[in-house]
Every structure is written in C-alpha cells, then in structure tokens.
C-alpha cells in the first residue's frame, strides 16, 4: 500500500464514528507533536513485530506521509531482540521492514544481560513445555546497554516512539511522553497508544487490514521469548465429544474398554501437565485467533512468569 493511502485511511478512521476513532485521533496528535518538537530526522520508532508496535508503525507512516506528501526513503527504527525469538516473528519483522521502508537497526544486548527472563537451561524445547523453572533476571540492564549502543551509533536520535499501553507491565504510570531514567541514554520515550485497550488494537488492525504476525492467528496474544510464551489457554478450542460420549444408550458391551492411564511423572509439576504432553498431542490442540479474546485482562495469560524490562 502506498504511504499516502495509509495516511488517508488512518486520518479518515480518526474522523469517523468508529469506537476507536478517539484513540486514533489522540495517537496521531501525540506523533504530530513529537515531530513538531524534534523533526523527522531526530525521531525513531521501536519495532519488535508485536501487535502494538505494528499499530504504532502504521500510524507513524500515516503521519509522515501527510506531513511530507510522501513517505521518507527510510524510516529510522530500532529492534532490540529478546532471547530465543520466534522464527515467525523474526520473518514478520523482516517483511514489515521491507514493506514500510524501515531503516531498522538490530541492537543486540550482551548474552549475559538479556532484555527478558530466560530459563536456566537453554535447550531447543521451550521451558514452558519442559516444565523447567524460569530464571528471574533483571532485564533492565540489557535494555539499557542496547539503548546505549543505539545512542552511540545514532547520537542525533532524541525521541523514540514506543507501543506501550497502560495495561502492559510497567505501563500503568506512563504518560504520553517520558524522559528516560537518570543513568540511561538521553532519549524521550513517546507512547502514542498508551491509553489504548487490547480490543482497540485489534479493531484498528482489522478495520484497516494491517498485516500482523501470523502467531496471533494461532492463539498467541502476547509474544515474548519462546522460553516463556505459549498460546493463550483462554482461546483453546475444546474438542467435540466422541460419538460414544454423545450416545448414553450405547450398550456397554459394544464400547471399547478404557485404556489404562500411566501414572504421572513425579519429576514434572502437575501444573505443567498440559504443556508437557508429547509433540503429537500438542499438535492436536487448536486455538482461536487473538482478536477473539473477549477479556483483555487475559492478554498475558499465555506468558510464563518472567521479568520484561520496559524502555525506561
């Protein structure tokens, strides 16, 4: 889609009678004010492929196209990966960077300073499926280090657009614009969609047919590392009962005898029973897409306990 078409769509939506229109109008104003204060050359956007920053990127391109009459040749963006990212997410980030013309700088924190908690054992199987404990580590230092690398590489960047919302961890006290904490690189964090709800995000993406990561169609509602992210249990599709279960009058003699169930493994916590099934069993589980989650408060029900560092 051409950038001028994106601009028309987002500004038309802001002026419409849609329930999300006030949020769109609000976000556009925050982005416009930031560009007025800093200029296009001094603003970047944080993009990690998630649904929130996908909304933010679409809005940002719309604002730039309207201000400049055409999209800039390259839009400055930064990507700070989490430990063990999903391959589908990485592919989406690459596709989006090409589609929107992002000058995307991949800023890796040191391995010993992750941005998010990682399991004690780094095996190929995600920790949430193995039942391993998740090691709680401070992600803040990894984020600080990555941002310092970005500041050193691009010292003229003064503000970063971030797709944080009030409902996110560490988001409740944030405003539209917040300076980084003392001791951190001197950026202003800008949160244009800070007041958006989970439902607002999906109304926007689906109304404008904005491409998003395919994992959201597989039941994921909040995407982090493969070590602590799995499909949201609230979206699991319950299997239909078997024909025998629906026919209580079937003679008992015609039913197959029940298969004895093996005893539970004493080494696995009972709470991980659903996650520790064999791959063939897990493959049979089906989930509705993320936009069908009714209760936005359950957005992170598919995330294991972890410490995720915000952009301070």
From TrEMBL:
Residues 257-266 have a biased composition (Pro residues). Pfam families: PAPS_reduct (PF01507). Gene3D superfamilies: HUPs. InterPro entries: PAPS_reduct_dom, Rossmann-like_a/b/a_fold. Signal peptide: none annotated. Transmembrane segments: none annotated. Residues 43-229 form the Phosphoadenosine phosphosulphate reductase domain. Residues 234-285 are annotated as: Disordered. Residues 267-282 have a biased composition (Low complexity). Its EC number is 2.7.7.2. GO terms for biological process: FAD biosynthetic process. It is an enzyme of class 2 (transferase). Pathway: Cofactor biosynthesis; FAD biosynthesis; FAD from FMN: step 1/1. GO terms for molecular function: ATP binding; FMN adenylyltransferase activity; hydrolase activity. Keywords: ATP-binding, FAD, Flavoprotein, FMN, Hydrolase, Nucleotide-binding, Nucleotidyltransferase, Transferase. PANTHER family: FAD SYNTHASE (PTHR23293:SF9), FAD SYNTHETASE-RELATED FMN ADENYLYLTRANSFERASE (PTHR23293). This is FAD synthase. It comes from Gloeophyllum trabeum (strain ATCC 11539 / FP-39264 / Madison 617) (Brown rot fungus). The lineage of its organism: Eukaryota, Fungi, Dikarya, Basidiomycota, Agaricomycotina.
């Amino acid at each position: 889609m051409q950038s001028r078409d994106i601009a028309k769509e987002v500004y038309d939506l802001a002026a419409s009678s849609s329930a999300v229109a006030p949020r769109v109008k609000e976000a556009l104003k925050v982005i416009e004010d930031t560009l007025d204060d800093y200029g296009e050359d001094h603003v970047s956007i944080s993009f990690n492929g998630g649904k929130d920053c996908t909304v933010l990127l679409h809005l940002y391109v719309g604002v730039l196209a309207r201000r400049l009459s055409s999209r800039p040749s390259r839009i400055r963006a930064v990507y700070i990966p989490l430990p063990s990212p999903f391959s589908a997410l990485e592919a989406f980030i690459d596709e989006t960077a090409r589609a929107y013309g992002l000058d995307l700088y991949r800023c890796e924190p040191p391995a010993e300073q992750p941005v998010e908690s990682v399991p004690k054992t780094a095996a190929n199987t995600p920790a949430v499926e193995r039942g391993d404990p998740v090691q709680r580590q401070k992600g803040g230092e990894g984020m600080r280090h990555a941002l310092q690398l970005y500041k050193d590489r691009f010292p003229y960047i003064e503000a970063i657009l971030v797709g944080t919302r009030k409902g996110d961890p560490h988001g409740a006290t944030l405003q539209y614009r917040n300076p980084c904490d003392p001791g951190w690189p001197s950026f202003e964090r800008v949160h244009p969609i800070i007041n958006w709800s989970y439902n607002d995000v999906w109304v926007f993406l689906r109304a404008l047919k904005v491409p998003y990561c395919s994992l959201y169609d597989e039941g994921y509602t909040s995407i982090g590392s493969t070590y602590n992210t799995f499909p949201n249990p609230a979206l699991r599709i319950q299997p239909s009962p078997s024909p025998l279960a629906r026919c209580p009058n079937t003679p008992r003699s015609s039913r197959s005898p029940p298969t004895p169930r093996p005893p539970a493994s004493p080494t696995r916590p009972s709470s991980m029973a659903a996650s520790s099934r064999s791959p063939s069993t897990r493959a049979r589980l089906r989930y509705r897409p993320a936009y069908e989650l009714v209760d936005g408060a359950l957005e992170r029900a598919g995330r294991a306990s972890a410490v995720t560092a915000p952009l301070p």
